[in-house]
């Protein structure tokens, strides 16, 4: 395991082919300031160069308390817009990069913390995780992509409820609401996220790229346009040398067979 510190705000470790990126401002519950966003941006760029998949987690008792409210109090309208657009750019670098991201969630996953988690591809929550969008209570609005990403995950009605009434969802509710894909016992989210990342990292890189970039775009297309684009991506990936080798490996019985859950 290679360990070093990308910045005061973010830790970066390499575990095999997987980058583990840790939000590291536990004394402020990993609240994200302007400099913190830049530290995340640096870690995203480094992982894109070095890793095949990423595990994103929070140091301390919480994943992330969202926007640094102390810093936000003093902003002008145009500074707020610039800040929001910077979050969009950095989080889009996660969502539409070249490698899959797995977030390991515990404690508070709120406001901008939920927006950050929503930009990752797979969310694993432990039983301590709770989810909220308290922007309405703070007199503000989501600004880190939540109105697009969280609404697409769980639907506008649930997100409206979270924002209007301050409803706080448990990990089990978040799974039912499609906010997270996995729930595990307390303290096990990072390990589960790592195990899933290792599996994904063994896929063809081009398939992973197609999954994370094409699926959300096709969801936003008209049905016929989506089917048209799918055919081209399907053909493009299938004609790569790596696909040929993997298909042949299956036919030669060198590749593992699928098994039903629980079967040996
Ligand atoms: C913070 C922040 C923050 C904590 N900005 N400083 N997010 C929120 O509205 C969530 C606000 N935070 C909380 O509700 C709670 O802090 C937690 C549930 C996350 C954690 O509770 P707890 O009891 O463990 O910690 P605490 O005592 O409330 O906070 C510890 C310290 O962190 C304290 O500072 P201290 O100097 O008094 O020790 C808090 O002030 C500080 N802290 N959260 C700044 N968010 C791009 S748009 C996105 C818009 C949003 O994200 S809005 C939602 C913001």
Describe the structure.
The structure is a single chain. The strands form 2 sheets. This protein has a 7-stranded mixed beta sheet with strand order 1-2-3-4-5-7-10, with helices on both faces. Strands 6-8-9 form a 3-stranded mixed beta sheet. The chain is globular, with a radius of gyration of 19 Å. It has 12 helices and 10 strands. α6 packs across α7 and α10 runs antiparallel to α11 (223-238). It has helices at 34-50, 69-72, 77-95, 112-119, 135-138, 146-154, 156-165, 171-176, 189-201, 205-219, 223-238, 241-251; strands at residues 2-5, 10-15, 18-23, 53-58, 101-105, 108-110, 122-126, 130-132, 169-170, 182-184. Mean pLDDT is 95; it is low at 1-6. It is of the alpha/beta class and 264 residues long. α1 links the parallel β3 and β4 (53-58). The structure holds 3-methylmercaptopropionate-CoA (MMPA-CoA) (1HE). 3-methylmercaptopropionate-CoA (MMPA-CoA) (1HE) binds next to α2, α3, β6 and α5.
């Amino acid at each position: 395991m290679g360990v070093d510190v990308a910045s005061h705000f973010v830790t970066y470790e390499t575990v095999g082919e997987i980058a583990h990126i840790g939000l590291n401002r536990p004394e402020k519950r990993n609240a994200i300031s302007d400099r913190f966003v830049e530290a995340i941006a640096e870690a995203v760029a480094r992982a894109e160069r070095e890793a095949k998949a990423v595990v994103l987690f929070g140091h301390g008792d919480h994943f992330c308390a969202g926007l640094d409210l102390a810093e936000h109090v003093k902003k002008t309208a145009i500074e707020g817009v610039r800040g929001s657009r910077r979050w969009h750019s950095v989080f889009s670098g996660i969502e539409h990069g070249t490698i899959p991201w797995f977030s390991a969630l515990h404690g508070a996953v709120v406001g901008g913390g939920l927006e950050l988690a929503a930009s990752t591809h797979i969310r694993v929550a432990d039983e301590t995780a709770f989810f909220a969008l308290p922007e309405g209570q703070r007199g503000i609005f989501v600004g880190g992509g939540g109105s697009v990403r969280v609404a697409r995950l769980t639907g506008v009605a649930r997100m409206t409820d979270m924002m209007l009434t301050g409803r706080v969802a448990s990990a089990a509710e978040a799974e039912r609401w499609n906010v997270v894909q996995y729930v595990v016992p307390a303290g096990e989210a990072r390990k589960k996220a790592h195990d899933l990342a290792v599996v994904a990292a063994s896929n063809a890189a081009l398939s992973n790229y197609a999954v994370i970039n094409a699926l959300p775009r096709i969801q936003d297309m008209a049905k016929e346009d989506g089917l048209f684009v799918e055919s081209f991506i399907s053909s493009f990936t299938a004609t790569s040398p790596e696909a040929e080798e993997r298909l042949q490996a299956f036919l030669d019985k060198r590749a593992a067979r699928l098994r039903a859950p629980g079967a040996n």
